[in-house]
Amino acid sequence: MNLISIYDLSHAEIEAILEKGEELKKERKKGVKVRKALEGKTLALIFEKPSTRTRVSFEVAMRELGGNVISLNWNELQLGRGERIRETATVLSAYVDAVMIRAYRHSTVEEFAKYASITVINGLSDLEHPCQTLADLMTIKAYKKKLAGVKVAWVGDGNNVCNSLIGGAAITGMNMFVACPKGYEPAGEILEKAKEMGCEVVIIENAEEAAADADVLYTDVWVSMGEEEEGEKRKKVLRNYQMNEDLVSVAKKDVIVMHCMPVHIGEEITEGVMNSDNSVIFEQAENRLHTQKALLSKLLKY
Ligand code: CP
Ligand code: NVA
């Protein structure tokens, strides 16, 4: 089984991953780190673009489950010299049990999965970031005690992280509001699928309207990896979508503020909000580890 899109998982599968993630988190807090669940299994991580959280959390997750992990940069592989994905996927399938791939284009991840005979996990593409969504759902559930009916307001660029979160909302029954400028909406195919599942995402231009009475406020960078060339333009277009104290004040009093990180303080979020009592951003980042352990246990079990 692969995880290329968050839509690859059913509601029951997501709930099971969140439950297992919570169990592993509790155990780890008590000092139980290493299990032997994935002894003898090897996960390769391929990065076409930078990563801190995804790379380290996957490496630690695999090691703590008793498995092996190999972290590879695209340009250090023959991929960087023009070897095709097709041959790379076929060869790696003979060596390792799973590949996590972070790529510029979603089609790269899909092509890798097409030719691999092993499990392939999307570690972020221009379209989706499903592993992030698993940690996000675990965090929201821990604070709100439920997912169905929770009001989530995304403020800013309707990007890859937003797309997967919309999928997560459609699967679990959360109500999703997206405030973004025209031309920065989430992907049509993601919205279409959400709609088919009965989740009508509300897309509006006004950030305060979206944030009103929200249980969860979420934002992400204005310039994603690969968009650097139009960085200055994006920063101008998105400047009214900052997660600041004024915006937080229109949400519910116990709103949680989320961000997948890395944060750009002073751009999409203020220092004050980042470090406020409402912010669960560091715990959200920690939950990447627990949900990925749960995910790997599911995907790689004997
Ligand atoms: N949130 C996230 O995926 O972070 P990295 O880019 O550091 O992996
Ligand atoms: N939207 C951001 C997320 C980084 C984790 C990007 O793609 O760069």
Topology, pairings included?
Blueprint: H1 11-29, E1 42-47, H2 53-64, E2 68-73, H3 85-95, E3 98-102, H4 106-115, E4 119-122, H5 130-144, E5 151-155, H6 160-172, E6 175-179, H7 188-196, E7 202-204, H8 207-211, E8 216-219, H9 231-237, H10 245-249, E9 256-259, H11 271-274, H12 281-300
Parallel strand pairs: 1-2, 1-3, 3-4, 5-6, 5-8, 6-7, 8-9
The structure holds phosphoric acid mono(formamide)ester (CP) and norvaline.
How does this structure look, described?
This protein has helices at 11-29, 53-64, 85-95, 106-115, 130-144, 160-172, 188-196, 207-211, 231-237, 245-249, 271-274, 281-300; strands at residues 42-47, 68-73, 98-102, 119-122, 151-155, 175-179, 202-204, 216-219, 256-259. It folds into two domains: 6-129 and 288-299, 3-Layer(aba) Sandwich (Rossmann fold), CATH 3.40.50; 132-284, Rossmann fold, CATH 3.40.50.1370. 49% of the residues are buried. It has a five-stranded parallel β-sheet. A four-stranded parallel β-sheet has the order 2-1-3-4, with helices on both faces. The protein is an alpha/beta fold. It is built from twelve helices and nine strands. The structure holds phosphoric acid mono(formamide)ester and norvaline.
